[in-house]
TrEMBL record:
GO terms for cellular component: plasma membrane. It is a multi-pass membrane protein. This is Transmembrane channel-like protein. The lineage of its organism: Eukaryota, Metazoa, Chordata, Craniata, Vertebrata. It comes from Pogonophryne albipinna. The keyword Transmembrane applies. The keyword Transmembrane applies. Its main location: membrane.
Amino acid sequence: MSSEPQRPGSREVHDYTEEYGYHSDQQSLRLRRGPSRVSNQNQPQFDWSSPHEEEDEEGSSGPPRDLRATPLPMALKRAIRQVQQMQVPVVSSRDSWKRKKAKSLRKLKDCGMGFLSFFSLWSKTLQKIGGNFGGGVQSYFLFLRFLVVLNFVSFLLIAGFVLVPSIVFRSVGAALVNSTGQGACMVYDPNPEGLVVFYNYFLDLLSGTGFMEYSYLFYGYYNNTMVEDKNISYNIPLAYLFTAVFYFVFCLICIIARMGTAARVVVATGSSTVGDYSMIVFTSWDYGCLGDRATKLKQKNIHYQLQVDLEEESIKKRAAALTLSQKIVLYSLRVSMCFVSFGLIIAAFYGIFAATEFSQVKSGQGGILGLFFEYLPSIVITAGNFVVPLLCDQIALIERYSPSTTVIVALLRAVFLRLVSLGVLLFTLWRQITCEGAENTGECKLCQYNHLLYPCWETRVGQEMYKLTLFDFLINIAVLVLVEFPRRMVVDNWSNKLAQWVGRQEFVVPGNVLGLVYGQTVVWTGALFCPLLPLINTLKFILLFYFKKITLFHNCRPALKTFRSTTSTFFFLVVLLFGLGLGTVVMIYSLSEIRPSMGCGPFRFFPSMWSIVPTSFNNLSIITQEFLFFIGSQSFSIPLFALSCVVMCYFVALASVYGKSVALLRAQIKLEGRDKQFLVKQIEMLSRRQQILKQTAGASS
């Protein structure tokens, strides 16, 4: 190749790149030492030609370094780009085809990502919420969106394996077991006959009785049929059982996967202010923000994140400055307030227990009074969940925790209240269904459950969960219409000191997250007895999203005390995992211990719901049975357990190595910060000495 004349500015490019250590084999702007017509032939020349030509000459197969990633001044980059645009590169047909292919693939990828983002639920709304109210409030709406998707996918699972086959095969097939059982235990006819007063349909819709009870909404309407044909064979009871089990496994996998994503963020920041500050400064800005509105929202979001870090750091400094006597007073105050909060929670439990027993005794009445007795447990649970958390929030203010710790403590107390209150309701129902655990005495002797009070106890439990879900939704609407909007109108239009002191409400994230966890726990508890409850909860959460969005933008003001969204997001999922655990315990106990109702449901002739599994197993072929026995044997489980232990030990060792590396890097960052502070101090001292010397020299002259 003939030598090129040296262009102006090539020497400056060489000096700058040599200083920062970028050599010719790592950049698209290549430097060459070639023969030149200029007198100074030993100076390296900068090749302004296309980098693809040199790749062919040098045999380099790697992609060229992007000009934007090269550490050069902006003026020099602009000049280089102008020179490159002036030249017409000589490109072979093969390279041209590669370029066109890469460009088309890039466009296809961008179109695909844009198409997927179009179907992403409420992405613009969530960006707007994060910009105006911070990441803490945004984490609530992200959590709500996750639950909407989880419930909808769960409904598709239940509909595909239980609901649709039950509708299709309802008039086809025969009973799985032909046993008749006890005649008194099989009496169950919820379908009313004759004329019904119109308002009774409304009462049935609210209570889940009447026409609602005799539908696919509840357990009792599903048959114990098995379809056997030349082309198809379907076992409705087995599908019902396995779908319920897989539904819980699917929810567990989704929660753990999302917890892993949130945990990576927490580990990356190290739950420290320094790590979080570094992520905010270097990685928080979204360069895809287009327009002034999106830019301002992103700036507000970053402002809220920095505000959280400053508040956390100031509280830590105040806590470190406390004396020993002040710490003793503070910790004794926290312990005493903890006992007070637990006393309130226990009082709420007793009220729920008494209301549930009274409601079950008076449940036979009709009309509005009967509807009140039906909803009495839901009313007491909702009242306790509303009053006790408010008192616990005031107690948390006295305890003087940091904002993030206050959120976690308040959420733990409220979660304990709500989940255990639901457990008290289920315990009261269990006492009445099983005659207080004595299944072979009294009214439970004939059927091993109280068939007189609960001819189809699974449907009755499903009705209670249905009423809790519906009542929780109605309470949210009532609070929005009757409390939040009137409060905002009074505060905005009345200049009284009392109104100004009350002010607009804040969006309390712990209470709202607790409502979501409670509603989802109710769905998990009643999914076995009310298969369409995930669909109802999906519609409820979708409407709740828009209601909360309206009240957030029109009735609420930004919170005075913010909190860290990274730790709160992970903790929300941990609390949700507690709710899944409660629902799993209820499902396992119902499948294995309590006798199914003999007058309804797909398991009416089995001693337990799980009995369908060994019965269906005996009907399998010999080869399939031997394979399943091998999977459950020691010869398969022991090697699998050993392999799992080895893999776990490997990942634990890998995590420990990464943790040590992260700790060393953090220590190096701290040392470099101290070195910089030392250098700054030295520079200040030298500048002061120079000023003193100048002053003395000026005075002497």
